[in-house]
């Protein structure tokens, strides 16, 4: 396997790992923010479907 291809595959694996780590971090942050929301002020959502 050519050296250039090895480096490219390593780089792609690092980018994928970094992206997954960021998504998981943002999911945790979103969950914490949702827990801090004053849910008593939320309104019931009603879809406006015209059937």
Per-chain topology:
Layout: H1 3-36
Plain-language structure description:
- With 51 residues, the chain is an all-alpha fold.
- 67% of the residues lie in helices and 0% in strands.
- It has one helix and no strands.
- The chain has one helix at residues 3-36.
- It starts with a helix and ends in a 15-residue tail after the last helix.
- The model has no long low-confidence stretch (mean pLDDT 90).
Question: What distinguishing features does this structure have?
Answer:
51 residues, mainly alpha, 1 helix
H/I helix tally: 1
Low-confidence stretches: none
Can you count the beta strands?
0
Shape designation: elongated
Helix percentage range: 55-70%
Oligomer: single chain
Q: Which structural class do the helices and strands define? A: mainly alpha
Which percent band covers the strand fraction? Answer: under 5%
**C-alpha end-to-end distance:** 60 Å
Radius of gyration: 21 Å
Short description:
By secondary structure, the chain is mainly α. 67% of the residues lie in helices and 0% in strands. The protein starts with a helix and ends in a 15-residue tail after the last helix.
């Amino acid at each position: 396997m050519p050296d250039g291809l090895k480096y490219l595959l390593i780089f792609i694996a690092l980018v994928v790992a970094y992206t997954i780590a960021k998504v998981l971090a943002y999911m945790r942050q979103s969950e914490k923010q949702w827990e801090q929301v004053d849910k008593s002020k939320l309104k019931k959502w009603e879809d406006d479907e015209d059937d």
